[in-house]
Amino acid sequence: MSKLKEELERFKPESESELKEHFEGLAKAFLYGGYISVSDYKEERYKIFIRTVEFYCHYEGDKKDLPKDPIVYHRNGHYVEGEVPYFPVMSFHAHASGYDITFENPELKLRSSALIRAYEVYDVLQKTFLHYDRKKKLFVSCNDSKDRVNKQSTYLYDFINGFGGDKIKWVDTPITEQHQELNPAQRQNVYKYDIHENKIVDANGKYIKDDRKWSFTRLDEIENISD
Questions:
Q1: The pTM is what?
Q2: Backbone dihedral region of 101: left (phi > 0), alpha (psi from -120 to 50 degrees) or beta?
Q3: Residues 6 or more apart from 182 whose CB is under 8 A from it?
């Protein structure tokens, strides 16, 4: 079992106040503890290093201490009528906003996931990082380290869609010897909801942003890329 999966299986918060601390620990595992390996039918083809991870956690029980996060895609009452089966821990979930690594818990009635908001793609065969070129609508070689961070999460879905089954997997390996710095922030385009799952507006009729800092960005550069 991978170290990341062990961390995700230990995620059993009892209140929302604990979540930021839990997510900080998990963020270090996602951002510094390894990468997503994408293989073709012969060998490893790409390494995807997560640069920014956003956490989502939606509680489907009756306790008041755990959060409701209606923006979560994979849950009861969203897109599908009736009960939605829980994903096994560390399932990869592609959806309209990008790519998730999930860690749901049916016993606790938690739908939790980590959205890959920003990432770096390393081409193992070409030995270079790739950056999405909007004009060409392709991932192309990138020589400038400043440009190799891709912030379009939906492009990741398009990029690895088609590599199924055991061709996509998590690999545990430290990617840097640095101090594991993080930059906590609010999640992008996430707003507050009322108990009826409607977005809350302010006095001017504008949607109110969710202020929970459940987004974390790796500040250190990758040092360990073993081919």
A1: 0.91
A2: beta
A3: 24, 27, 28, 31, 216, 217, 218, 219
